[in-house]
Amino acid sequence: MRLTLRVWRQRNAEEPGAMVTYDLDGISEDMSFLEMLDTLNEKLILSGDEPVAFDHDCREGICGACGVVINGDAHGPERTTTCQLHMRHFEDGDTVDVEPWRAGAFPVVKDLVVDRSAFDRIIGAGGYISVPTGAAPEAHATPVPKADADFAFEHAECIGCGACVAACPNGSAMLFTSAKVNHLNVLPQGAPERETRVLDMVSAMDEEGFGGCTLAGECATACPKGIPLPSIAAMNKEWLRATRKASRR
Helix count (H) and strand count (E) of the chain? Predict the structure, then answer.
C-alpha cells in the first residue's frame, strides 16, 4: 500500500507548526496506525531527518496514551483507539492527514504529542475514594445493586485518552469529567464524598480552561469506550444536588 501522509510537525510549544508531506510505500493492511508511523520514522531516521513524535504505551487500547486526529476524526474513521486502528481501513493511494488533539487545554508538546496533564488535575481534585489507613474492608461485604454496578462499570471504562475533548467543537471535557464523577458517586464507597467530589472536579475542569458543553454529542460519538452522552446529564444532576445542599448549610 502506498500513502501520502500530511503530518503536523511542531518543534515545541513556542514555535509555530505546519503540515509536512511524506510519501510512504510498502504499508501492509495488517499494520496498526502506530506501526505505520513507526515505519515512517524508520524512513526518516535512515535519511537523517527528525522522527515524528507521538504518544503511545500499551498499544492494546487500554491505557489511553495514544491519540491523534486522522482526516479530521479523533482516533480515525473507526470507533477505536489509534493503536487499534488498522491500515485496512485505508485505500492504496490515499492521502492521510495526521494532527494532534486540538484544544486550548491540551497544548502541543512536540509534533503529535500534547500535554494532557489537565485530566490528571481534574482527577486529583476528587476522582478517588478516601479511606482511612488500616485493614481494607472486604470488597464483597457491601452489596451493590446490579443497576448501580453496571452504571459504575460503564463509566469506569473511560481511559482518559482525550478524544472527547478533541472531537468537541468547544473543546469541552464534560464527558471525561462526568465519567469519573458518575463512576464513583453511584457506589456506596463513594457516597461520603459525593457532593465535594462533583463540585471540586467540575471546578477544576473549569479552571483548566476547557470549553463549555452545548451537547453537540461529538464527544460520545468519538469515545472509543462508548461513554454515553446522558452521562453529562447525570453529572449535571449531581452538581445541582450538591450545590443546593451546600447552599442550605
Answer: 8, 7
